[in-house]
Specification:
By secondary structure, this protein is mainly beta. It has one helix at about 1-20; strands at about 30-35, 50-55, 65-70, 75-80, 85, 90-95, 110-115, 120, 125. It contains 1 helix and 9 strands, in the order αβββββββββ. Strands 3, 4, 5, 7 and 8 form a 5-stranded antiparallel β-sheet that branches. A 4-stranded mixed β-sheet has the order 6-2-1-9, with no helix packed on it. Strand 3 and strand 4 (about 75-80) form a beta hairpin.
């Protein structure tokens, strides 16, 4: 009798350790960029910029989104390994992050990562430059 109880308890403990929690729900994202005033001779879509990726409205409290950025010119990836994770506690990500005046070059594409590892392109909306039209 004691051996059966021990086996039952051991089996229950093993099951609770090997069962994994379900994946958190995935949330979709939006991406936008705001051109800066430099270089002044370039059209706004070709200027240096700041990219902001945001969770779409309606993301549940435990939802997440994983994103990557790729530069089509250099082949560079951000982050260099892994992915950026957005949550309701961190609903937006600005590239580059700091300092506040930092900018990046055109040519960065944003990708949303599904649970199966597939990457989906996220179109970027162009916002007006700070201070109005160029």
């Amino acid at each position: 009798m004691h051996i059966r109880l021990l086996v039952a308890l051991t089996g229950a403990a093993f099951l609770s350790v090997t069962e994994s929690a379900p994946d958190p729900p995935l949330c979709r994202v939006t991406a936008e960029y705001r051109p800066v005033s430099w270089p002044t001779w370039a059209e706004p879509e070709e200027r240096f910029r700041r990219i902001t990726v945001r969770l779409r409205p309606g993301c549940p409290p435990n939802g997440i989104a994983r994103v990557h950025l790729f530069n089509v010119t250099s082949g560079r990836r951000l982050p260099e390994s892994g992915s950026y994770t957005l949550t309701t506690d961190r609903p937006a990500l600005t590239i580059p992050g700091t300092p506040a005046y930092a900018v990046t070059t055109p040519g960065w594409d944003v990708f949303w990562k599904a649970n199966n590892g597939r990457l989906w392109s996220v179109p970027q909306t162009q916002l007006s430059p700070r201070g109005g039209a160029p």
